[in-house]
Write a structure and sequence with these properties.
Elements lengths: L21 H17 L7 H21 L1
């Protein structure tokens, strides 16, 4: 949904608009919920599990910097 392209490269990612893309965002949320309900540890999705860990580590670090 969101992302940054390498310098000088065009991104194929689309930035979504909350109002315009409400249905797509809802579909993605439902898919994510189903995935986590079926595999809470994301054992079957190691790349996704690693991306989630990185994101959580960044959020934790940002929180600690603000505290």
């Amino acid at each position: 949904m969101l992302g940054a392209a390498q310098a000088g490269r065009r991104s194929s990612l689309k930035l979504l608009t909350l109002l315009k893309d409400e249905d797509l965002i809802g579909d993605a949320r439902r898919e994510a919920q189903q995935l986590v309900e079926a595999d809470p540890a994301l054992a079957g999705q190691p790349a996704l599990a690693a991306a989630v860990r990185v994101m959580l580590d960044r959020e934790r670090a940002e929180y600690l910097e603000k505290a």
